[in-house]
């Protein structure tokens, strides 16, 4: 074989070796990419499965309610109500009810067949032992007393074992709330604001924590605020009735955020109609008594629409209907209680576990 032929053979062999080596490293690289992608996929599936397993289950309630107060219809007897407004459930599942047209506060102990008048009940009037269409009540369990929004008398009063005192006067109050830091919050539907007082210190005018910028629909205004809820961070949730929305005002904020409704009055899932009672759970879900739509809705902050959790099929007296719901509250098991105003009853919607 000639030298030229030998040189050619060597070059060809070198090319084959180089090509083989290149192919070998490409194969390894592809294999590494496949393994990495496989591991990423397995990791993603594992994380998704874990999140699904640990994702909080959204609560649901039975469609048909149990009437726990007001079984005997409208009236002023100890087993009757006439236009219930605000309600408060304590740790023992006792129900405190503002019996609007009977000018009294009634306490129903758990599973009781009749209630006990614990404030008012002495006819409509301005005497210290009377009430005039109260709208809300909270229980101060530390001091064994109740605090009442005595709306038509324009005052907030405290009752303790039949002893009464005026805490705040000259205020067209509607809703009340207390936080864990010892502050009392009161909505004023004439001044379109919410004020806060330190418990026991009522000689001052309180501090405006929401609204206070005149009647209007801007995010720094309110238009007839009704019921209130205060969370662990002292954020105040307000049913802004005539703006058909629920507002959230963070502590020390100069304006609020719309967290439910705010799309004009209506019955779509993006709308509310004269919202009343409001509550917020530990996940930040907002529950609101949608008065004009005869339903209770749940909204997630940041979402454009809510969902109906009870009612919403028109007004009525059947167990799956509401008739102008006002206040709402939950017991420590998550059962939902609604003050069904026209039906003169308190409806308990049991949670589905």
Automatic annotation (TrEMBL):
InterPro entries: 6-blade_b-propeller_TolB-like, NHL_repeat, TRIM-NHL_E3_ligases. CDD domains: NHL. The chain crosses the membrane at residues 27-50. NHL repeats lie at residues 221-252, 266-296. Pfam families: NHL. Keywords: Membrane, Repeat, Transmembrane, Transmembrane helix. One of its GO terms (biological process) is protein polyubiquitination. GO terms for molecular function: ubiquitin protein ligase activity; zinc ion binding. It comes from the Eukaryota. The keyword Transit peptide does not apply. SUPFAM superfamilies: Calcium-dependent phosphotriesterase. This is NHL repeat containing protein.
